[in-house]
Predict the 3D structure of the following.
Amino acid sequence: MSRAVEESNRRLLRARDAMDRRYAEPLDVPTLARVAHVSAAHFIRTFRATFGETPHRYLQRRRVERAMFLLRSGDSSVTDICMAVGFSSLGTFSRVFRDIVGEPPSVYRQRGPLPPVPSCFAMAWLRPSSLD
């Protein structure tokens, strides 16, 4: 890998890390392009080529992932969660959530609370230890 490609990847990772940290804030392409030290058009092209989705879609997915956790781990309203994860419109949040998850937020919430630990770990605790 050439030095130029490595530097480009570092810049894109810097912008993606900013999206991961500040997903709930209003982030736009020009702001993220400045983080990566490239033009907005170049940022969109190279981000998509590198990560397989546009910066906007990546940010939406990160927000929905956080909303999925909040929907099943607390009792905040769907509207409050929508706003907490960075969406400014309940309609847009519901549409994007359904597109990504496959069901509306209210239906997803009906699955109930998240288990305290991943089931693969719980099952490991139930198996007898080979060290006994």
In short: The helical segments are 3-21, 29-36, 40-51, 55-73, 78-84, 90-101, 105-109, 119-126. Residues 3-21 form the longest helix (19 residues).
